[in-house]
Amino acid sequence: MDTTETLLLPPGGSTIAGDVDALFYFIVYASIAIFGIVLFGIVYLGLKYRGRKAAADGTTPGITHSTRLELAWSIIPAILVIIVFVWGFNVYMKMNIIPGDVMEVKVTAQKWFWSFDYPDGVNTVNELVVPLGKPVKLLMSSRDVIHSFYVPAFRIKMDVLPNRYTLTWFEATAIGSYDIMCAEFCGDRHSEMLGRVRVVSEREYKEWLESGTETAEGATPVDYGRALFRTKACHTCHNVDGTSAVGPALNGIVGKQRPLAGGERVTVDENYLRESILEPQSSIAAGYQPVMPTYQGMLNDKQVDALIAYIKSLK
Ligand SMILES: [Cu+2]
User: Is this prediction's pTM over 0.90?
Assistant: First the structure.
């Protein structure tokens, strides 16, 4: 079911988008109609009964009611709300009952990026790649605070919580690239917690899975590391221009002394870098919060090597 661009949302790109939009516009137009009727009543009655003289004895003539009018303004709105309830309940069930033959992806949210684990061990950060025309089930949890997984074009939004799984699903209807946003305020870089859903053909998806996440086959380690620095979301917390952000700047640190939170100092070398990436809690840089997530299990050795090569190349 395709929909065109709407008042507030991008064009629909999933099987439920048409249902959600139809109900949404029914409510919008019904509200506009009711607003018009009430406004008309106010203006009409205001004009009709303005400035009239009271009866000779100073009292207002006895006012009775109109049964027909009262029934009409009770029954019509009651029917409207029943329609909205039944219709909304149906769409809600459709959004929440996950079809049987699905592809499952594990979604992990953390400050401030999304990571995706596919069935055969492949993982990506901030990019969810799915085949066209196949229902995708998302099994989601958070490593820190509450986030909310939101794909406006698919009309899906679901909270992502620590210590508990939440589920949602979608089936994309058009090849393309769609925004992912976090819809729950989750800290100072909440607005940068963005990703993309890339919908590709079945064949392209298979090829992509086979090539894994190797974004830069044949590139030098430094180039590969630079690409990973973005795709693994390091750049959301680290600058490479000497200014500190959530984490310290990573340029020109190799060979220098790094004061740690415990008071001791270490010399920044390959091992310190490796440990900082895989076990960030083991040595906390002085003056920073221990908020860096562990990348254990999310990066293979080649990727860690590439990131270290890249950090060493930064002056
Ligand atoms: Cu968030």
Answer: no
